[in-house]
Amino acid sequence: MLRQFHEDTSLLRNMINYREDIEKNNISITGIKEECIWLKVEHFDLFSQVGVDIMHDLNEGVIKYILMTVVQRRWKNLRACFSRELRSQKEVKSGQAAPKRKHYVYYEKLLFLIPSMDQPNETFSNAATAPVSEDNEALGEDESSSSSTVTRRAQEKKKKNITYE
Fold first, then answer.
1. What is the C-alpha R_g of the chain?
2. How far apart are CA 91 and CA 99, in angstroms?
3. Which of 13, 73, 106, 126 is 20 to 30 A from residue 6's alpha carbon, by CA?
4. Is the pTM of this model over 0.90?
5. What stretches of the chain show up as alpha helix (H) in DSSP?
6. Contact at 8 Å (CB) between 164 and 113?
7. Considering only CA atoms, which of 16, 12, 19, 24 is closest in space to residue 50?
8. pLDDT tens, 50-79?
9. How far apart are CA 144 and CA 85, in angstroms?
10. How far apart are CA 97 and CA 38, in angstroms?
11. Which residues contact 122 (CB under 8 A, 6 or more apart)?
């Protein structure tokens, strides 16, 4: 498991460094104004019986990391379930009996995801294209026309296969 912090135990306050800080009598350096009244309570150790203030911990910034993880996992799960449902609906052929199973609860609400799911991530190059020499121009015309035809056919075929009803 990854950790986002490292606790240095040498920096934790204990009875020894607490007494030293009280003797310094400098609140701006030590953060201690006077001796704590809890030290006078019998059978109570201030340094081993620490109470945790959950709202202080959450408000200090821990909650944003917890919520971020929860939301990311939930969103990933929603997309995966929607994708699975979309795939299962595409696999049903026309005239085929409908499968007897429950449909995904949020399918209708997540239909807005379809455009982003079908398109592969576009990549762009910042490299310049190589100039075509005169010798390759004649060959390039034939090759480019045949390759563009193949590309056009593949795109048309892809468009025909996409149905969302």
1. 33
2. 11
3. 73
4. no
5. 15-24, 27-30, 54-57, 63-91, 114-118, 134-161
6. no
7. 12
8. 777 777 777 777 788 888 899 999 999 999
9. 39
10. 75
11. none
